[in-house]
Amino acid sequence: MKKEMISQDNCIFCKIIAGKIPSHTIYEDEQFKVILDVGPATRGHALIIPKNHFTNLYELPEKMAADAMKLAKKLMIKMTEKLHCDGFNVIQNNGEVAGQTVFHFHMHLIPRYKEDGEILKYIAGEPGAEELERIRKTITE
Ligand code: AMP
Ligand code: ZN
């Protein structure tokens, strides 16, 4: 019996999964499709996309989150071998404020090269021990 797909009509990644929009697929299995990003940060930038629609990591079932990370590791190793990159970023954005622009869960696989410049940068804060302790309590208590 064929499993029912969870998809959303106006979602660009659901359309890619359904084959309505073309993509450059580098890996596919029952759960995931992995495609090259059309606006790559570096050469080989790819996206792990679940075939079912989940908005973000909050919604993604735990098992699928684990499987996505396992796949990230597997592909990172293969892509490093094939592309001869020098390092790797695995990034995943949740919510507009966090930089998410496509609201169908995905994980970015970004090969890094010695000469590719600073593509991801944030300014490190200086909270101090007291503030860090307040935050720790907020999270854990
Ligand atoms: P995020 O900002 O984390 O939501 O990432 C969305 C990513 O999807 C961006 O890096 C886009 O370049 C990429 N993207 C958007 N449309 C397509 C498409 N049709 N094919 C491949 N990648 C896409
Ligand atoms: Zn979708």
Name the features.
alpha+beta, HIT family, subunit A, about 140 residues, about 30% helix
Characterize the structure shown.
The protein has 141 residues and is α+β, with helices and mostly antiparallel strands. The chain has a single domain, classed as HIT family, subunit A (2-Layer Sandwich). 29% of the residues lie in helices and 18% in strands. It is built from 3 helices and 5 strands. It has helices spanning 12-17, 62-83, 128-140, and strands at 25-28, 32-36, 46-50, 87-91, 107-112. The relative contact order is 0.16. The mean pLDDT is 95. Zinc ion (ZN) binds at residues 7-8, 11, 13-14, 53, 104. The site of zinc ion has 7 residues, from helix 1.
Number of strands: 5
**What is the CATH top level name?**
Alpha Beta
Proportion of beta-strand residues: 15-25%
CATH second-level architecture? 2-Layer Sandwich
CATH superfamily: HIT-like
Q: Name every ligand kind in the structure.
A: adenosine monophosphate, zinc ion
Our count of domains comes out at: 1
Give the averaged pLDDT, no decimals. Answer: 95
SSE pattern: HEEEHEEH
Spans of at least 5 consecutive residues with low confidence: none
User: Number of helical segments?
Assistant: 3
* Integer-rounded radius of gyration: 17 Å
- Global structural class: alpha+beta
Shape, principal axes of CA atoms:
globular
Q: In which order are the strands of the major sheet placed?
A: 1-2-3-5-4
Provide a compact summary of the structure.
The chain is an alpha+beta fold and 141 residues long. It has 3 helices and 5 strands; from the N terminus they run H-E-E-E-H-E-E-H.
